[in-house]
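Practice problem: predict the structure.
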Amino acid sequence: MTGSPSSSPTVSAALRLGPDEVTPQLVVALRTGALVARADVSTLDLSGPGAVSCIQGLLTNDVEQPGDGAFVYGAMLTPKGTIVVDGWVARQGTTVTYTVPAEGGARALAILSRSVPPRLARSRDRGAEAAVLRLVGPHSLAVAEAAGFTPLPGPGRVAAGAGWDVAHAGEHAPFTLQLTGPAGEAPDLLGRLRAAGALEADRVALECARILRGWPRLGAEVDEKTIPQEVRFDEIGGVSYTKGCYTGQETVSRLHFRGHVNRTLRGLLFDGEPSGALDGVTRLDREVGRVTSMMWVPNSDRWIGLGMLRREVTPGDMARAENCDVRVVALPFDL
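Answer:
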């Protein structure tokens, strides 16, 4: 990732997770068990009497309406409505914690520092002092309970417990639970979760879960021109159309009520081995988009991926990408 702390995200080559990284054991855990991995994120706190109202004016989603203990996904935008950084907000009393991709941490902190008056709230990056673990898979809740996290918060909620904040993202998110606590205690907690039945994995596992769920990633699906609706914010619950004003709202609301996006995020099923040489997608000899993320699915013996495609390319259409025929499918993937 390049650019100044306040710059918009730039895009590199398509993310590619091959057979040497995506093991059958990992996919089985994602589909029928539970795995835990440390997330590569920045953890930003905004604390003070005006923390909630200030983040409300910067985020695409609603933090005020769900009340104390809310855990919601949303993005900070430019005044023109393009995404600067996305992440998860946990509201606890007079503190809101914004967990964002590591490459977006400096940008998010710059927005908070520039936009929030110190008399209302102060922002800080918890840096190396905080660890964020994410649990993925249908048995995640059972594993967390067996590891001592009871009672667990409901979907879209966060609660403090045993030195770690426990946030429940819900069944449609790319992870089920997010555990945030002291970095020095992370090894012990990982041991407890393993003993409770979780497969310990690395960040590749979280990327696989994200791709399977059809969620965007900063620097892959999200570039400096991306508008929230282009990357499924309506479907994944990342934007509110009933809250008050926030930076970039005019563009987002105008598209929702009066227009449409020209491109959107779709799933891709590859018929063969992607070459890795080209990330453009063509249909009927016309370029219609680009491949943004790919992964090998060992249990299905095929490659799948995400692509930003023109809106007229719909599920069921055939196209070409990475020197392969590809079928366009709806998200999330149904394997």
